[in-house]
């Protein structure tokens, strides 16, 4: 399986043999390439340094950026963040502040030269030939500025450095040099070369053409783009000492740096306030940058306030304003509101662009609204909006996720017919899709194909491959891919570790995931909340609930605390410095070959969860709603109120409100905490529907498990009122397929009670009444899911007339007249009314009477 990374392309001439036919200057055409950097580039550039010395600059003077080509290693690609489509699109097409004034259009010759330079690839001799051939035609500095920006957008470090070195010493004017330096600093920042950007900034400043507000602003932006916001602030504060006074451009760059670094809004907005205090009037770019700060956090309500402020100040919204707002809404789970905003744009005479639709399509895809995403794609084409690389790659990912591979490949071919070659993002989407459906031969073929085409795998590629093989139990193959990853000299960081940990957890390998968690901490790599959420969720078993009307909770066998300590201590047996990932895959492959048991139940207990929560507290990692849902799910399988209460106590380390509500409802303080519960549910409105429904499901399951069934009913009724679960809820049909077992059972009681009231008010029931449970989302037996079995046990236990529909195991039905007769029985009302077995003045043992 393991294979070496592809070699750089052979030397060839990239210049035309015949004179060129001059073309008219076309509009600037944006190109979307992966912004990842390939490992072999440094080797190719380094080996050619000697040949390149003195060639192409016509002066023989040492290159300012010559050292950039030495010792360069590929960096972790940012696509893995899960936002690569919309964020990259927004950056490529954005109206963000320009750090270098560029009022003049570039020439047609610049487009031609750019095309030939891209074809030259890593061949330094070919790059020099192109630059020399076009020297007389690229006389405007704006031509070189245009090309440098394109190299930054497309991830071409070598082309950027060669082009800059070629032109910088040919310019004698201080202003022209300042423009080039500022642009190159921005390009290096976009390429992730922050140290080289700083070196250029400092040398240019000392030489006299870099001590400008534009150079400072470019460096501030480069810092922010690479996660060095504190350095950006320090540089901003130092401007006055260099005789450069911050202005609107400087403040815009600093605010934008906060947006690119995903800094908290409360931190960034202080500089906005300072700007106002200095008497500097914000413009549209200022507000667009503030909106970008909101986008990464999904702070859609704050974004709404900023838009209102813009309107009050008479600042007109542009396409970037709307695109960023839509991105914020999508990340905040407000897809319906985003649709309305999309419709509003045209009424304000702001026309949707390809970025607008890419943002919406990506937002729908991440919310698993795949059909909606496909409809938006068709709508974009009907509007005659040209599809770009980002949109094509997004559609490839959607079709692959749906298993519609013919259409996914069709998108690839259509993209290629438009002159856009497949890139690493395209292949990553295909690899993930084929792996999702267990098509491992296609995964192998695609992985080899991309390398054969000199498309260098990035960190996301390798983590996707490892994820695919690990989930399939193919540990030897996963180990081979990891060895290939090590040979490529790509960086291991939190997202790579988290990807492997998540794969292990989904395969039930909790012990291995904890070992990797400890290993990454030892290496100085700080986990994030996603890392812990994966392990916490995997460390719990599905709750064993008894859904009949009568009976008691079924006991679950748990290990002792000593066994949990042995698990955690066992993770430290390897010596620090060992490659834990490699050793882990070797062990897993050996165990599979020997048919050994994986992780045992005894290793998945609440003591591990408590240890994980304590570790989060030590590392100052704040849990999110997904963490809380995982804790509540773990509580559902506890043996007693005391165990569940102890597990909930871990929440107090982080959030007294969540702890107060959940613990209060569990212990029977329903009336006292319901107001606080409403406030908590208000906070849930900011979440996307799947995240919010997961929290409601987990809370209801816990309450149902321990007999707090009136509280469970109140929670699901409130969730239904807030439209947490999408689906029909009427007198004729109850759709439960998005609910957990406890939530569904509580909802059945509430629904039937509502029907009971309808009957006694003199109304009739429909001819047919239906309950939908779906096919069982997590069941491997079609039509026999956990939810279906739980609802069936409940209905049968009550003696209801509901029966399974023939040919549809997820649908229960009852004739209306039979259901009415059953509901009118004197004993049924008391059967449907739910009670809490524990209240604030009583401490009873768990009961399900």
Automatic annotation (TrEMBL):
UniProt superkingdom: Eukaryota
Lineage, broadest ranks: Eukaryota, Viridiplantae, Streptophyta, Embryophyta, Tracheophyta
Ranges for region Disordered: 1-68
UniProt record similarity statement: Belongs to the PPR family. P subfamily.
Composition-biased stretches (Basic residues): 20-34
Smr domain boundaries: 734-823
Protein name: PPR containing plant protein
First and last residues of every PPR repeat: 212-246, 247-282, 283-317, 318-352, 353-387, 388-422, 423-457, 458-492, 493-527
Family annotation (SMART domains): SMR
Organism: Medicago truncatula
The keyword Repeat is assigned to this record: yes
Protein keywords: Repeat
Record-linked NCBIfam families: PPR
UniProt-listed Gene3D superfamilies: 3.30.1370.110, Tetratricopeptide repeat domain
Membrane spanning stretches: none
Pro residues bias locations: 1-11
Low complexity: compositionally biased ranges: 42-64
């Amino acid at each position: 399986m393991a294979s070496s990374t592809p070699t750089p392309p052979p030397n060839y001439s990239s210049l035309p043999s015949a004179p060129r036919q001059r073309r008219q200057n076309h509009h600037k055409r944006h190109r979307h390439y992966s912004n990842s950097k390939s490992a072999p580039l440094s080797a190719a550039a380094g080996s050619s340094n000697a040949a390149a010395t003195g060639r192409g600059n016509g002066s023989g003077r040492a290159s300012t950026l010559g050292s950039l080509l030495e010792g360069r290693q590929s960096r972790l690609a940012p696509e893995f963040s899960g936002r690569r489509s919309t964020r990259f699109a927004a950056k490529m097409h954005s109206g963000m502040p320009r750090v270098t004034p560029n009022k003049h259009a570039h020439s047609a010759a610049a487009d031609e030269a750019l095309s030939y330079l891209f074809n030259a690839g890593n061949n330094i001799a070919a790059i020099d030939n192109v630059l020399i051939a076009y020297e007389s035609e690229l006389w405007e500095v704006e031509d070189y500025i245009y090309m440098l920006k394109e190299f930054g957008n497309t991830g071409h470090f070598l082309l950027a450095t060669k082009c800059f070195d070629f032109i910088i010493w040919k310019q004698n004017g201080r202003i022209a040099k300042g423009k080039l330096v500022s642009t190159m600093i921005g390009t290096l920042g976009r390429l992730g070369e922050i140290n080289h950007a700083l070196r250029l900034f400092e040398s240019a400043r000392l030489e006299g053409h870099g001590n400008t507000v534009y150079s400072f602003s470019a460096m501030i932006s480069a810092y922010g783009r690479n996660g060095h916001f504190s350095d950006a602030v320090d540089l901003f504060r130092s401007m006055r000492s260099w005789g450069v006074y911050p202005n609107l451009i400087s403040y815009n760059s600093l605010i934008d740096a906060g947006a690119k670094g995903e800094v908290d809004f409360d931190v960034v907005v202080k500089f906005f306030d300072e700007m106002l205090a200095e008497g500097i009037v914000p413009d549209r770019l200022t507000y667009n940058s503030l909106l970008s700060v909101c986008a990464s956090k999904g702070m859609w309500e704050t974004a709404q306030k900023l838009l209102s402020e813009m309107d009050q100040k008479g600042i007109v919204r542009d396409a970037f304003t709307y695109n960023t707002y839509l991105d914020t809404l999508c990340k905040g789970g407000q897809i319906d509101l985003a649709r309305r905003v999309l419709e509003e744009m045209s009424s304000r005479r702001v026309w949707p662009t390809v970025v607008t639709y890419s943002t919406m399509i990506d937002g729908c895809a991440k919310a698993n609204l795949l059909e909606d995403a496909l409809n938006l794609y068709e709508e974009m084409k009907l509007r005659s909006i040209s599809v770009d690389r980002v949109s094509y790659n997004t559609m490839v990912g959607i079709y692959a996720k749906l298993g519609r591979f013919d259409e996914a490949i069709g998108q690839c071919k259509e993209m290629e017919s438009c002159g856009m070659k497949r890139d690493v993002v395209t292949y990553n989407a295909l690899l993930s899709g084929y792996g999702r459906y267990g098509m491992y031969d296609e995964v192998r073929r695609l992985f080899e194909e991309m390398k054969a085409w000199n498309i260098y795998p990035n960190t996301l590629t390798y983590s996707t491959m490892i994820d695919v093989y690990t989930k399939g139990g193919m540990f030897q193959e996963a180990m081979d891919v990891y060895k290939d990853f090590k040979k490529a000299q790509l960086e291991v960081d939190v997202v790579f570790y988290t990807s492997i940990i998540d794969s292990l957890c989904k395969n039930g390998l909790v012990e291995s995931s904890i070992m990797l968690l400890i290993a990454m901490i030892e290496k100085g790599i700080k986990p994030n909340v996603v890392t812990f959420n994966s392990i916490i969720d995997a460390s719990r078993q599905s709750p064993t609930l008894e859904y009949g009307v009568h009976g008691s909770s079924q006991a679950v066998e748990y290990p002792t605390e000593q066994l949990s300590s042995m698990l955690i201590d066992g993770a430290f047996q390897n010596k620090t410095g060992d490659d834990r990932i490699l050793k882990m895959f070797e062990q897993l492959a050996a165990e599979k070959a020997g048919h050994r048991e994986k992780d045992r139940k005894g290793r998945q207990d609440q003591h591990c969860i408590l240890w994980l929560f304590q570790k989060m507290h030590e590392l100052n990692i704040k849990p999110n709603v997904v963490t809380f849902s995982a804790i509540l799910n773990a509580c559902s399988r506890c043996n007693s109120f005391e165990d569940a209460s102890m597990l909930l106590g871990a929440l107090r380390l982080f959030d007294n409100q969540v702890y107060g509500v959940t613990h209060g409802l569990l212990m029977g303080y329903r009336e006292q905490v319901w107001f606080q519960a409403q406030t908590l549910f208000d906070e849930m409105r900011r979440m996307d529907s799947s995240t919010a429904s997961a929290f409601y499901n987990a809370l209801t399951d816990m309450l149902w498990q321990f007999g707090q069934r009136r509280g469970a009913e109140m929670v699901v009724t409130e969730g239904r009122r807030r439209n947490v679960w999408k689906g029909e809820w009427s007198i004729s049909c109850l759709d439960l397929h998005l609910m957990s077992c406890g939530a569904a059972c509580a909802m059945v009681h509430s629904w039937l009670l509502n029907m009971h009231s309808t009957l006694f008010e003199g109304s009739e029931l429909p001819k047919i009444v239906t309950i939908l449970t779906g096919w069982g989302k997590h069941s491997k037996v079609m039509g026999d899911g956990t939810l279906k079995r739980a609802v069936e046990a409940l209905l049968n236990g009550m003696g209801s007339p509901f029966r399974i529909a023939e040919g549809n195991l997820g649908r229960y039905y009852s004739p209306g007249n039979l259901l009415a007769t059953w509901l009118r029985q004197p004993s049924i009302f008391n059967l449907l009314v739910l009670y809490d077995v524990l209240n604030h003045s009583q401490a009873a043992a768990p009961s399900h009477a």
